[in-house]
Amino acid sequence: MPPEKVCEKLRTKDAQICELKFDKSIDWKTVDVKKLRVKELKKILEDWGEVG
């Protein structure tokens, strides 16, 4: 079942359920860093404690 349908069905019980977002884990063996978005790169640096 697609996430949109699940969200629609659960929205009646809890409206915040559709706002949940989970971080994607990065597979360093297959990821092409040159193709990542700036937002994703900033998140990686933040996780590493490199953002000042």
TrEMBL record:
Pfam families: ARMET_C, ARMET_N. InterPro entries: ARMET-like, ARMET_C, ARMET_N, SAP_dom_sf. Keywords: Disulfide bond, Secreted, Signal. Residues 30-50 form the ARMET C-terminal domain. GO terms for biological process: dopaminergic neuron differentiation; neuron projection development. One of its GO terms (cellular component) is extracellular space. It is found in: Secreted. Residues 1-26 form the ARMET N-terminal domain. Belongs to the ARMET family. This is Mesencephalic astrocyte-derived neurotrophic factor homolog.
